[in-house]
Specification:
mainly alpha; MetI-like fold; about 80% helix; about 0% strand
Length: about 230
Amino acid sequence: MSRLFEGIIEAFRLIITLNPALLQIVSLSLRVSGMAVVIAALIGIPLGALLGLKPEKKTRLLNKIIFTFMGMPPVVAGLIIYLILSRQGPLGVLGLLYTPTAMIIAQVFLASPIVIGLTMIGIRARGCDVEEMARSLGAGSVLIAWTVIMESRFAILGAIITGFSRVVAEVGAVMIVGGNIAGHTRVMTTAIVLETRKGNFELAIGLGLILLIISFIINSGLYSIQKGGKNG
């Protein structure tokens, strides 16, 4: 128990003194996950809106596929992207394996179904009434779609935040395609695994505390967005 307390104290010291190794790992984690979620949002919001505006019976099979991918284990996603980016894979000539780009691709693969699915659910919950009202006022297809998206903005923001929380805390996919290379592809989750195995609990605890703080901020934001959406 004393070792745990000593580790926590040393972890706080690393955070307060802005330890360079710790900052580099945290910075890469946020860059990779942030970029992945931006791309996932650009893909997922239009597709989710398109599916949400269609009758559910016409998209039943697609819904099942999306919900299946929403719960995909990260190691499976990592394996799929690894096979695609490996030398024998279709994109092996690009040399992307064991780079931050490969990690972003893997996280996009994980986050996109979440953004698509939750956007679709949010738009389907509020979109039908808004669509009928906008259509009755003579709005065109583009204006109708934009109006529905704006009315469902809290659900869409919640989908984006949920996607980010999913990828920033995952370890399996980024370890498979990134290789956990120091100073190049090592992020918070993979560093925690490595430092724990090495017995360097101070850095592992420090990264764990930062990950918990980020998780708290994300969930607080999600709670505020959902509360705002209900009040609206």
